[in-house]
Amino acid sequence: MNAFLWVSSWLEGFGLEQVESIWILAPLGLIFIFLFIIVPSSMIVAYLDRKVTADFQARVGPNRAGPAGVFQSWADFFKLLQKDRNSEVSWSEELWLAIHTMALYSTVAVLPLGSLMLLVDTDMSVFLPFWAALVVALGTMLLGLSQKTVAGWYGGIRVATQAISGAFPALVAMICVGLRAGSFRWSGLVAIQGAAPLSWTAFSNPFQFIALIVFLVSGLVLLAIPPMDAALSSPDVSGGVAAHLSGRRLVLFKMGRFYSFYLWAVIASVLFLGGWKLPFEISENLLEQGKIQLLHFLELCCLMTKSLILILLVIWGARVNPRTRVDQITDFAWTVLSPFALFALIGASLVAGWGVLS
Amino acid sequence: MRRSVFSSVVSYAKDVIWGMRSIFKSCLTAIPYLSGKHDLTKEVTEQYPDPISSKTPDDLPPRSRGMLNNDIERCSGCRDCEAYCPVTCIRVEAEPATDETQIWVSIFDIDFSKCMFCGICTEVCAPGSLRHTRIYGGASPRLSDMVASFGRGPVTETQRAKWAERRKQIEDEKVRLI
Amino acid sequence: MKENALYLSTIGRVLDWSRSNSLWYTTANIGCCSDEVLNTLGCRYDLERFGSIPQVDPRQSDLLIITGAVSYKMAPHLRALYDLMPSPKYVLAVGSCANCGGPFAPEISYSTAPGVDRILPVDIYVPGCPPRPEAIMDGLLALQEKIRG
C-alpha cells in the first residue's frame, strides 16, 4: 500500500483530489501489474520450459535470440502482437476469453510477494486464487464450447472435467495448512514458519508433507499444466481451446497458462515452504534500520528462488514422463489424490488437536 | 470372487507406491542428460551456421551427392547428360570450334530447382567433367537464381572468324600433303 | 523529424527481429522431403534454435513448409491451409517437386501443378531432392534475412 499512497500524494501535487485520483490510479495500477508482474513471470516460465526441455532431450533449445536465447519469449510476444486478427472469431468467444483473462489476472491482487507487498490480506485470501482458478476453468470451457470446432469442444469439456476433479484435493490440502496456522491470511500462514527447512509447514509433520505433494499435483490437474495437460495439449486434442486462437488472443491465453503455473508455484511455496522468511533475523534488523527497499528485494528473491525450483521440478517431471490421458487424470485425482488429501486432513487435525490439548 | 477390504487396501497402496517409484526413477534417468558426458547423453545438435560443433561438408559420406559441378575445360559437349536427365534440367548448346576434336560449349545450364540429384548424368559423362560436389544449400527467394551456368558464353564474331581461318589452314595443310 | 525517423526505424527493426526469430511453422507434408523436414526439427538439427516451433494449427503459425508435388486435387486444400494463417505469413518450398514440379513436371505428369508458386506466393525455394537438413536450415536463414531486410 506504500506505492498507492505515494502515487496519490504525487497526484495531489497536481491539484487532484484523492477521489478523483483513484480513477487515474486504477488503470495505472493495472498497467503496472500487467507489465511488471504478469509479463515477466510468464516470460521466465516460458523460457525455462523451453530450455530445460531441450536439455532433457539432448539438444540445445533456442539460442539465437540474444545470448543463450534469453530474449526468445520476447520475440514470440512481439511477433504474436503483430499478427492479424482472425475474422472467424465470434463475440461469445471474445467474451469468454475476456472473462477467463480477467479471472486469472484478478489473482494479482492477492498474490503474496513479500511481507510488505500484500495488496489484499483478508481472512480468506488463500481461497481467492483458488476460486479464480475455477472461474478460469469455467471460462475456458465456455470458450471452447462457443468455438464450434471439435478440438475446442472436446478441449473445453476436458478442461472442466479436470478442474472439477483437481479442485477437491487442492481445497482439502489448503485446509490442512490452515489447521496448523489457525488462519488463512498470508501473513498468518507465513508467521508460523521459519527460515530453516525443518520449520517449514511441509516438514513439520508427515501429514503436511503428504498435503504438499497432493497440493502440487492437484494444482497441475486443476490448471492443466504438463504432464497433466491432456485437455490442452497439441497431440491429444490438437491444441484444444487454443487451437482456434491466434495473435493477441493467443498471447492472452498462453500468458495466462504460464502465469497460472507461476501463481501455483508461488502459493505452494508460501503455504508449505516457508514463503519469504529470511534467516538470522535479517528482516527485523532491516526494518529497524529502515531499509525497506532492500527488505522487499531480499524477500522477493527468497520467494522467487523457491517457486522457480518448484517450477523446474514440475517441468522435470513433465518432460520425462508420458502425458497422462484425461480419463486417467480424473481417475487419479478422485481415487488417489482425494483419499490422500482426506488422510492428510485427518492427520493434520489430530496433530493440531494434540497441540491444543497438551 | 470378492476380495477382502484389507487385501484391496494393500493392493491400492502397492499401486500408489509403484507409481511414485516409477515417476521417481524416470526423473533420475534424465540427470545424465544435464551433465552430458557420455556418448548417449551429450548434446547431439549440430549447430549448422555457427562455428561450434557443426559438421563441415568434408564430414559427409564419400558418395554423397551435392550440387553438380562441370569442369568446362574437360567437357566435350557430347550432350549425353542432357539426353539421360530424367527431369530435363540440363541444357547444353555446343558447336564445333577449330575441328571435330575441339568443341565450344556455349551454354551449359543446370536448373537446381528441378534437379533430382540422381547422379545419372555423372555416370554417363564420358570425359568425367560433370561431378557431384559436397556443396548443399543454395536456398534463394527467386527460382532464376538457382540456375547454375557453366558454359563459356556465346561465340563472338572475331572468334568465329579466327576458327574459320584456322580450319582453312588445316585444310590447306591436308591438300599440300596430298 | 530526422530523429523521429530514427526512432521509428529502431522500433521497426525490433519488430522485424521479433518476427524473424519466432517463425512458428506448420508443415504440409505432401512428399518425401518431409522426412528431411522432420529430421530437421528433431534433436540432431534442432530447428528450435532459431525460435521455430511446430504448431498443429495453421492459425498459430507464421511459416508454411511445403514439401512434395502438389496435385491439382490437393491444391484447394493447400490454399485453404494458407488462408487460415493470419497475416504476416511466409511460405518455404522444400525440394524440387515443390519448387517446379521436379520429376512430376507437366511434361511428364498430367495431374501435378508445376510448383507450389502457381498456388501460393512462395518466399524461399530450397533446392535438393531431398535437401539436406542443413539446406533447409539455410532456407530458414535466408527467410530470416529477407524479413530483416
Any overview of this molecule?
The complex is a heterotrimer of chains A (358), B (178) and C (149). Chain A is 70% helix and 0% strand. Chain A has helices at residues 2-12, 18-56, 72-82, 91-106, 127-145, 150-181, 186-191, 206-223, 234-237, 248-271, 282-289, 292-320, 326-357. In chain A, helix 4 (91-106) runs antiparallel to helix 5. Chain A is globular, with a radius of gyration of 21 Å. By secondary structure, chain B is α+β, with helices and mostly antiparallel strands. Chain B folds into two domains: 5-35; 67-177, Alpha-Beta Plaits. Helix content of chain B is 34%, strand content 14%. In chain B, strands 2-3-5 form a three-stranded antiparallel beta sheet, with no helix packed on it. A two-stranded antiparallel sheet of chain B has the order 1-4. Chain B is rod-shaped and about 120 Å long. Chain C has five helices and four strands. Chain C has a single domain, classed as Rossmann fold.
Write the layout of secondary structure elements.
The complex is a heterotrimer of chains A (358), B (178) and C (149).
Chain A: H1 2-12, H2 18-56, H3 72-82, H4 91-106, H5 127-145, H6 150-181, H7 186-191, H8 206-223, H9 234-237, H10 248-271, H11 282-289, H12 292-320, H13 326-357
Chain B: H1 5-29, H2 31-35, E1 68-70, H3 80-84, E2 90-96, E3 103-111, H4 120-124, E4 130-132, E5 147-149, H5 157-177
Chain C: H1 2-21, E1 25-29, H2 34-40, E2 63-67, H3 75-84, E3 90-94, H4 96-100, E4 124-126, H5 133-148
Helix pairs in contact in C: 1-5, 2-5
| Overall pLDDT level of chain A | 84
Q: Uncertain segments of chain A of ≥5 residues (pLDDT<50)?
A: none
Count of individual helical segments of chain A: 13
Under the CATH scheme, which class of the largest domain in chain B?
Alpha Beta
Fraction of residues in helix of chain A:
55-70%
What's the overall geometry of chain A?
globular
Distance between the termini of chain B: 117 Å
According to CATH, what is the topology of the largest domain in chain B? Alpha-Beta Plaits
Q: Percent of residues of chain B in beta strands?
A: 5-15%
- The unreliable regions of chain B are none
Let me know the number of strands of chain B.
5
The secondary-structure element order of chain A is HHHHHHHHHHHHH
Shape of chain B: rod-shaped
Structural class of chain A: mainly alpha
